[in-house]
Amino acid sequence: MNNGQRPVSSPSEDPGSSAAVPRGLRVSAAYAWRFLLVIAALYVIIWLIGKLSVVVIPVSIALLISALLAPAVGRLVDVKVPRGLATAIVLVGGLAVLGGLLTFVIIQFTDGLPQLQTQLNNSLSQVRDWLINDLHLRQEQIQQFIDNAIGYLQSHQAAITTNALTTAGTIGEILTGMLLTLFVTIFFLAGGEQIWGFLMRGAPRAIRNRVDVAGRRGFASLVAYVRATAAVAVVDATGIGIGLWILQVPLAVPLATLVFLGAFIPILGAFVTGAIAVLIALVTKGFITALIALGVVILVMQLESHILQPLLLGRAVKLHPLAVVLSIAAGLVVAGIAGALLAVPLLAVLNSGIKSLVHEKDPHPEDVDVLHDQAAAQPDDEEPEAKEEGTEVR
Predict the structure, then answer these.
(1) CB-hemisphere CA count at 13 Å for 201?
(2) What is the pLDDT of residues 206-221, one digit of tens each?
(3) Of the candidates 18, 25, 68, which has an alpha carbon nearest to the alpha carbon of residue 264?
(4) CA separation for the pair 367, 305 (Å, rounded)
(5) Angle at 255 between CA 251 and CA 260, to 5 degrees
(6) Of 11, 151, 163, 238, which residue is 20 to 30 A from 321 by alpha carbon distance?
(7) Of all helices (H) and strands (E), which one includes residue 121?
(8) Whole-model pTM?
């Protein structure tokens, strides 16, 4: 008899109960399978992007170019210029400026190549004299090293030829990507609003406004990022160019132009182009001048990282410098130079879009002016307090 009392059953006797599993373990397991699901989804997305990189990268670069040129198109449209004509004017003007810069750099480097070759030969002669007189190496040892290097190149001629053919194929892919980028940019500038409106039809009606505003804020952040990056690039190019000109390093102006173009890849681009400038200073002017040029490059990089990046990019996209560095590193590992170029803009867009989805309660797309009001790029992190008790926060 149980005297009317319910018998106490052990946890194993109740198959529908999870009481035997500690709560901490249940919570950890719930987080774990959701985390694994998210990682699997991200892996599939990255895999698809890798498979479609020939299309994804040109479209992404076209979006960056559109963010840079859209304000100019918008201003022309404001003064009653037809959008198609405004797009043609801005795009042709932008291509003319970019082509002019690249042509200037190539012509200057080509014209200065004989001088660089002469100075390189002189530098190599000085190095040979230093090896013979100071390190007491024999001429035969130096010649043997040169012969070994030539023999290595000859023995690996097939591999070098294969790499050259691969490079030629890569150049073909780059040209195809450039044409696709130009084609997509034209449509983004001429009909970006219509394209975005078409995409918004796929969003559920209940959250369509919130998704619309998040996308607009993301593009506004992209516009702010491109503007700030252009300003940083101008300062980098001016500082390094003035330093090289004072040191009388050959090709100072084209090197400064190269720094300007490279600065659009955050941190990495200016570093690589600055290293090229230091190398040319070393070849043409010697070790002391190269050391001073290195100091100029480091000073400009410190100015960029500690003043310009927080002041301009920090205000534009509100990203922590550590997030910028880590995103560039991740982009470089995943997709090389293209990944390093697109990592920070992607992070800026996601940052603004997610903040908008989280904090915007009842947004309206027409309230976001993505081209003229850069405050639209970042929603408030805190919800505004209602002016009167019982007033709904909107």
Answers:
(1) 5
(2) 878 888 888 888 888 8
(3) 68
(4) 33
(5) 155
(6) 238
(7) helix 83-133
(8) 0.68
